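Budget justification aside, the reviewers requested a transparent look at the raw inputs and outputs of the sequence design task funded under Objective 1. We therefore reproduce one unedited record. The lines immediately below are the structure tokens for a 439-residue chain.
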């Protein structure tokens, strides 16, 4: 029962190259997981593209295919990996250092992980203060560095005989930056690249290289990266899908699950105090106040957008929202996040909710990298370009069109994602109205 013809989508034939600037904990856990799934060692837990289903038509039709059978996605066996890092470690060495994976998985996946080694990075210590990089590109200016990135990509394309490429930023969080004049037009940005403008961050150089080549770009960190007019316009011109920012995992994931529920029942919130201990390299980078500021802005926006205090001043007008991250090496990648939520109900009576989430950051982030890579590749084959708001499901701080507020509610985001897939295939959108069952 379909509403129309849907959109022409080029088939996913040939190999897909996934480019990863930043081959640390998240990227290596992602690569290891894909290889483990391909080898039949594990199941793709947490991935909408691999495990999710999508309901089509009326409930009485009982049509719920797997997402990957409904839209043409690249097969896991057709994926090749490459990346850049400011340390020369292979994916095996980096995964071992990251300490996410158990020994048995590391041993089983070692032969494959050793085949993936990073190119030297485009790196600037001013943007990530805590890292002492040893594996970096040199060039006469930032444009030269962007061209070197494009050459790396081209050599990978040829060497692996790739049909398509997609880039997902998995590098460290850069210091907090706002847009300046250099970010407003592509002409100003390209001139800034040639003149080494200090406001052009390394992540912007990778994003520029990808978008210029028409390669979809997804940003897993909260850095501006491709979230400014110059690169958004370039993406439209080169027919490139882009999106970000900051993978939605851990504490923010919990917030965007819980806050919509409290709001649905119109329970008030006086305060939400969130604190974390984290001992991986990401935690170390975030110990620098300037990198933490970027993360904090990304994390703080979520509650305001979900609770809409301007519409519900009596319930959410005075909320005190605090977020802390403490670097605590003994925990490694196994973060512990505590939330204390002060809520109130009927007649203003106070109540409290406590969450203690013993999570594994990279285990939560890895399936998002896979889904983003496959959906961004789908978007490109469906001729969708510019900001892909339908993929905000995956981000803490979703990139949206100018003038729009981002949608943070995880369930609305999922509905938006699935309705976009239905729209692409010409299936009826699901409104959950359901009156027809009672006519
Ligand atoms: N793990 C999660 O749940 C999660 C959630 C949201 C966002 N993130 C973000 O994802 C990113 C990766 O997280 P992670 O845990 O893998 O961190 P990580 O520190 O283990 O890995 C980041 C890697 O990026 C490299 N790097 C830094 N600058 C680079 C550059 N300019 N070019 C190439 N490589 C560069 C570092 O050397 C490091 O190996 C971070 O920005 C983090 O904030 C992670």
């Amino acid at each position: 029962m379909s509403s129309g013809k849907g959109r022409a989508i080029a088939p996913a034939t040939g190999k897909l190259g996934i480019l990863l600037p930043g081959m640390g904990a998240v990227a290596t856990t992602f690569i290891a997981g894909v290889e483990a799934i391909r080898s039949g060692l594990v199941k793709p837990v947490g991935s909408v593209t691999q495990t999710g289903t999508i309901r089509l038509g009326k409930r009485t039709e009982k049509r719920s295919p797997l997402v990957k059978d409904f839209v043409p996605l690249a097969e896991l066996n057709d994926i090749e990996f490459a990346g850049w890092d400011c340390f020369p470690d292979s994916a095996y060495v980096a995964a071992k250092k990251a300490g996410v994976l158990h020994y048995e998985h590391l041993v089983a996946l070692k032969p494959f992980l050793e085949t993936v080694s990073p190119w030297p990075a485009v790196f600037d210590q001013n943007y990530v203060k805590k890292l002492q990089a040893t594996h970096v590109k040199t060039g006469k200016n930032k444009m030269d560095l962007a061209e070197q990135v494009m050459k790396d990509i081209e050599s990978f394309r040829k060497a692996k005989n790739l049909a398509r490429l997609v880039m997902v930023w998995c590098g460290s969080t850069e210091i907090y930056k706002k847009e300046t004049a250099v970010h407003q037009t592509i002409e100003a940005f390209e001139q800034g690249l040639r003149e080494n403008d200090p406001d052009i961050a390394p992540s912007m150089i990778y994003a520029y290289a990808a978008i210029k080549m028409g390669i979809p770009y997804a940003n897993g960190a909260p850095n501006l990266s491709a979230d400014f007019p110059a690169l958004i316009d370039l993406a439209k011109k080169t027919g490139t899908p882009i999106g970000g920012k900051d993978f939605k995992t851990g504490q923010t994931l919990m917030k965007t699950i819980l806050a919509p529920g409290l709001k649905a029942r119109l329970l008030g919130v006086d305060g939400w105090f969130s604190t974390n201990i984290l001992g991986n390299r990401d935690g170390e980078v975030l110990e620098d106040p300037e990198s933490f500021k970027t993360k904090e802005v990304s994390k703080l926006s979520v509650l305001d957008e979900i609770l809409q205090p301007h519409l519900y001043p009596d319930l959410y007008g005075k909320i005190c929202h605090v977020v802390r991250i403490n670097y605590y090496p003994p925990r490694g990648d196994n973060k512990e996040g505590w939330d204390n939520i002060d809520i109130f109900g009927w007649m203003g009576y106070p109540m409290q909710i406590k969450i203690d989430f013993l999570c594994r950051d990279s285990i939560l982030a890895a399936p998002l990298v896979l889904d983003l890579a496959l959906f961004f590749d789908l978007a490109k084959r469906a001729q969708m370009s510019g900001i892909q708001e339908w993929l905000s499901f995956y981000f803490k701080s979703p990139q949206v069109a100018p003038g729009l507020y981002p949608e943070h509610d995880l369930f609305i985001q999922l509905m938006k994602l699935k309705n976009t897939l239905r729209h692409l295939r010409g299936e009826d959108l699901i409104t959950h109205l359901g009156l027809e069952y009672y006519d």
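The chain is about 40% helix and 15% strand. The first strand starts at residue 15 and ends at 21. Computational costs for records of this kind are itemized in the attached budget.
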